[in-house]
Amino acid sequence: MKGGITSGIVYPPVILQLKDRYILRKIGGTSAGAIAATIAAAAEYCRDQGGFEYVEKMGQWLGSGRNLRNLFQPERETRPLMTIVDAFFPPVAPSATADKKQRPPRRLWSGVWRLFFLWWVRYPVLSRGVLFGLVGGVLLAGLCALIVLGLISLFDRSGALWHQTVFWSVWLVLGLVFGLVGLQIGGILHALRQLPQHGYGICSGYSPSGDERVLMNWLARCLDGMLAGGRETVLTFGDLKRNRGRRDEAGKPESIELSMVTTNLSQGRPYVLPNELKGFIFCADEMRRYFPEPIVAHMVQYAGRFDGDNELSALALPEGYHFLPEKEQLPVLVAMRLSLSFPLLLSALPFYTIRSSALQELLRGDRERLEPADLQQNWFSDGGICSNFPIEFFDSWFPHYPTFGINLLSLSKEHFVKMDQGSPRRRLRRQLFSALDHRPNRKTLLDERDDVHLPHPQELQDPEWNELEGIDSFLSAVIGTGLGYRDTLQAALPSYRERIVQIRLSDDEGGMNLNMPPATIKAIVEKGRRAGQLLTEFDMEQHRWVRFQVLMAQLEQNLSAMNEAMHEDEMRQLFREVWSSPDFPYQRLRPWCENAETRLMELHELVSHWRKLAAERGVAYHFSDEQTPRPRPVMRLTTEL
Predict the structure, then answer these.
(1) 236: β partners
(2) Which sequence ranges are marked TM in the entry (predicted)?
(3) What is the pTM of this model?
(4) Looking at the 3D structure of the chain, how many domains does it have?
(5) Residue 190 placed within a domain
(6) Where are the alpha helices (DSSP H) in 414-456?
(7) Is residue 135 part of a domain?
(8) DSSP codes of every residue in 119-151
(9) pLDDT band, residue 559 (cuts 50/70/90)
(10) 226 inside domain
């Protein structure tokens, strides 16, 4: 499930549609998709205890009043920044006039005016910057009043009393306006200076006072409600794996696998959760700013150990610091919050690693324990920075069961056309797509594509086109392309596209629109329901047939290329050098090398036989020809993300 902040409200109806036909075994997501993945996994875990009924209640709660907006409560010092968010992303009800395009300059000025009016009712906390801004604004107003008085005196040198009246009136009016603006600008600058102390985020996502409307408090309460009556007090990845001991008809465990992505900004790389957190350290006091006490207590109780040299297995950390629990004891809400840290809106989370030099000193015996200065602070932010749509999760060469993707796409309102007056569906304008392929076997369903669409297996995905109208749209396209081009290309591949439902949201739906009115939320939820309905009609046999052709074409080409590169005599000589020389990296013993040589020769004979059969037919390959599904992917060694 893809990230998208408030766009995540589309997921509950999709989950509810799928649960009647499928058992959810492997669930993944990033950012807002991580919330949905966690809730879906918990609901499947509590299927017999009404877990999915709880998902329905959660969706209804989000669509009521200002509940969605209240999930994001700013810190006292960062409230001026949230005021800016509220001003530039106001409530917009779906209507006929809303379909008209609003030019960027007009949107900017509308946001500025809303911000000015909000400033009259929302005030920053008192700080030096606020006082300087207030005084500076009043002094600037006084200077303007003096200029007005000077201009009046040029034309009227009588020095009448009304001159002073005008002076004080101008100073009073401008003093109120400039003083307010200066006060608010001072508050904004103070809030920006305070951001690092709040994890570089406007909201921490958690209220220590227990306000259950706030994001993490609400999610913890929802999970507690699902688990009510069970033995679990904190849901962990190990609980999902064991899945209460359930087994399928063949007697195999029906485990639930939950995966998410986070981004370590300090190391400049993504991490897959929960598998890649081993060795990271947390401070219990810091975690209490982000999670309820039961979760922090669980993390401390099941703290992990250093994985490495036996001499350091009982490595002593500074007081209050602990290794993260092993993945089976890691609370799912911790991983979810790591994935959900939208930059600047939600705080990043601090975890720690050990400096390599400090570890060497411990091994040499120069010291007995670590000090806080020996730890490196790592800031974990939103998983969508690196992988906002991890469709590669759970993918296999030839699947036994379907793996679905839910892709959220944002388009300007001008690209949508209402289908009829009584239907919520909207069709996409054909001008949105670029035709680059004109082969006779091309299949396209452009005339039938609406804002919720599941492509046919043979339907080529025409590139979507967006007009760049100014510097703002240009910069937005630069950032969006850099972050999402891999997802866009992969989602268009055969054996991927037919299992990725596309949900298109307009500018005022989802994303940073924290103030969506109930009518807009209802429209998004309806799109989720339609997306789930399309996925229940998925044809698994057609998908497996397409994947078989794609896979075999790649295997044939890559094995043939490998066969040409691996000459028999050269490989035999290489194996002999490996087992006889200690200088080779990852050295293997002679029995292993002899076994590998036998297997390689058998593979060589098989590939040679395939090439011979293809040559007899006058073609280069059997599986790869003009009828092979397009566009063709590549098969290569790469990282998990």
Answers:
(1) 331
(2) 131-154, 166-189
(3) 0.89
(4) 2
(5) yes
(6) none
(7) yes
(8) HTT--PPP-HHHHHHHHHHHHHHHHHHHHHHHH
(9) very high
(10) no
